[in-house]
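Follow-up to my post from last week.
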Amino acid sequence: MEKKEIVKILNEIGLLLELKGENPFKSRAYYNAARIIELLDEDIETIVKEDRLKDIKGIGEALNKKITELVLTGKLKYYEDLKASIPEGLIDMLKIPGLGPKRIRTIYEQLNITSVRELEYACLENRLLDLPGFGKKMQNNILKGIQFIKQFSSHFLYSEAYSQAVDYKEYLDAANVAKKTEIAGSLRRKKEIVKDIDILSASNSPNTVIDTFIKYPKVKEIVEKGDTKSSVILEDGIGVDLRVIKEYQFPYALHHFTGSKEHNTAMRHRAKKMGIKMNEYGIFKGEELIKCLNEEEIFFNLGLSFIPPELRENMGEIEAAEKGTIPNLVDNSDLKGILHVHTRYSDGTNSLKELVEATRNLGYSYLGVSDHSKSAYYANGLNEEQLFEQWKEIDNLNQIYNDFRIFKGIESDILPDGSLDFEDEILEKFDFVIASVHSNFNLNKQEMTERIIKALTNKYTTILGHPTGRLLLARNGYDIDMEKIIEIASSHGKIIEINSNPYRLDLDWRYIKYAKEKNVIFAICPDAHNIEGLSHITYGIGIAKKGWLEAKDVINTLDIESISKFLKDLKQ
DNA sequence: GCCGTTTTCGGCCCGACTGTTTTCAGTCG
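User reply:
Got it. Predicted complex:
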């Protein structure tokens, strides 16, 4: 059984136990185990077969037995029984804001309601009013919550949320009501998908800040308004939380509200072991505050070097900070050039010359052009004749600039049988070849993996484009064995793309870290279809950071001479 | 259900807000 599936089942058991009203620490043990399995670099089946599961901290006798049963038989009786004992609809109810396991249990036990739709009717009939702990307001909120989840999906792309957050922050800054305001939460950690926007302000008069906060013109609904905290929903459905603290508390609160929850939990455990209490208001030795002017000093007081927000996912960053091995993360300024753009020759909207000028004006020293190949008829892919025409134009432009170089590339479709889209005599003339899947997504896992591996091991392939093929919030990636593909990329010296398009952000950062450990090299590419698209590269940088990448791991941090040589050597 | 320099039981991270109460439970982050 697949790791992903095991993780899902363990999490679901945790949830079901909560709904059953079991010991909360018991369900936490399952959540914890799910996370441990999720972060395993090694193949779970191997671990189980070698009976090493029980050696992992957090997996005891009972979980060892259950996970082993799952991995070996693909089933778990305990889970089946548990699931059968609880109506499915109760899990859906958890999506309603303000409803947690306890209240759902009450609703189920007292009113025998088993689905969101039934719950909605019950609210309209005022049947919740008589339940213990419920009242008119609660019933209204549940109704509103049901409307809300009907109307909006609960997640947003990083790029969308980030631009909303920046606008909100600018509004607050302009109002000049707080001494400091920062965007925190998953946005600060640059997660590819976020649930809401977290904003943190420092002020001695929090009410003024909150009053200003809720008057933001784009606010559609005020969900909560307290003395230090407020939540609103914006017109486009995204929720925004504001916390106001005192100025001296700002670094502690910034760390706290940046998260992740898992990182914070691990940090508090560490602090506790050192006799330090840690919360959003400070770190304390007994009652006494340990003064910190910034996050660096907080980490320092816990015996750690600074951990960049992008790494705070409890994926080994605390251990690395303890050892002083936090990587010097790649940054926008490290990039010397751009690869993977589309021009008007295929489905781009700017001319080659316009893109070259734009790239040059942004301070880069080279541009790798990669229009679609001939099979991509939907994207106006280039045939040989059009290709020769483009090469001629590139040659001419390369004569004009002495400080800038255009590389001839292609984004070649990976055909269903794994072959590339041109004959070898054409392929060998490119400076670089990006191989990407754009069709026949529904092959089974083995077929798809073999297809991609065949393309990847093609002599002329330089870069594997958007490796999982996912479209965030819209389409899951193809069914492939990514570990295997990463291993092949590593052993064949092939580059893996970090596609910076905000809908893709592909390769996923969780795999990037894994691939880096296998010595894979990356290219951070905008996949731009117009001049504005060049700026997407900054999202790719965020994801590269989350994958622990340094400049040396990224091919387009090389200067013109080095990358020319690198690309030439790859073809040998 | 897990864990152990307090080791086989008794803890397990912490605080704000809301809505319900009349001192607190539940939810959320």
